[in-house]
Amino acid sequence: MKKNPKKIWVHHTGMGNTIFDISKKVILITGGTGVLGESMAEYLLSENAKVILLGQTEEKVIGKVNRFKETYSNVLGFSGSVLDKDFLEDVKKKVVQEWGRIDVLINAAGGNMPGAVIGEGQTIFDLQMDDFRKVSELNLDGSVIPSLVFGEQMAEQGHGCILNVSSMAAARALTRVVGYSASKAAIDNFTKWMATELALKFGEGLRVNAIAPGFFISHQNRKLLLNEDGSLTDRGKKIIDNTPMKRFGKADELHGVVHWLISDAASFVTGAIIPIDGGFSAYSGV
After folding, report:
1. What is the DSSP letter of 275?
2. Is 6's pLDDT higher than 50?
3. Are strands 273-276 and 104-107 parallel, antiparallel or unpaired?
4. 3-state secondary structure of 75
5. Sheet containing 50-55: order of strands
6. Could you give the residue numbers annotated as active site?
7. Distance between CA atoms of 217 and 36, rounded to whole angstroms?
8. Rounded to the nearest 5°, which phi and psi values hold at 75?
9. If you ran DSSP here, which 8-state letter would residue 264 be given?
10. C-alpha–C-alpha distance, residues 73 and 71, integer Å
11. The model's pTM
12. What domains can you pick out in the chain, each with its CATH number?
């Protein structure tokens, strides 16, 4: 009689395997007060990393940092715009003075605006170009400028990792979110371009990748996906119908891929865009 093979479960913790060890890494997160950015920050702190939160609103940054300091000591916060290069240069100077280096940049800042969304009963010809430009600036320039500022520090160090946040809207034509889609598609291209540029000119120690989350409930999309009573909108139903796992993602389901990509376990991975979407990008709908 054939015996069933014994299952062996291996759990890699930060200290359990050196290639997965991210303890002591200095990690800067833009959009650190948002739903996904805050979740990543808390996870990385729990792995003994040193984390810097960047957020637009001073009150929110102070609140998040104070909450984290109740449990973790290695956390800093700065409030300002990711589009303000002088602000970012000042942050870089202060972080390097405090901790000596910057190992990882996670570009989690981003968002959308009503005028860059095609509303019910509207067509593409109702697009508000001012809002379209603002969304493009926030999502694209808001990742490019931090990558230039903090990436230069990494180039001087000879090592570092940049992790961008793309979207399912980048590779597929999701109706309505035209501005967001265009800017996230540009993030995919910039990720590959920057990965190539840094590796060719500054060596294998510099890597640039992206994660492409599927549908996670955030401040920006809540009204598009959920009714006030918590039930699914028509758009929310369509998304669930086209997601093989039949649910939205949870913020902590990004953590494993983020951990892998910023660790030495991914030392030969650059220019990659990793979907975290419950199968949405794999499913044809048939």
Report:
1. E
2. no
3. unpaired
4. strand
5. 75-79, 50-55, 26-30, 104-107, 160-165, 206-213, 273-276
6. 180
7. 9
8. -140, 135
9. G
10. 7
11. 0.91
12. 19-219+251-282 (3.40.50.720)
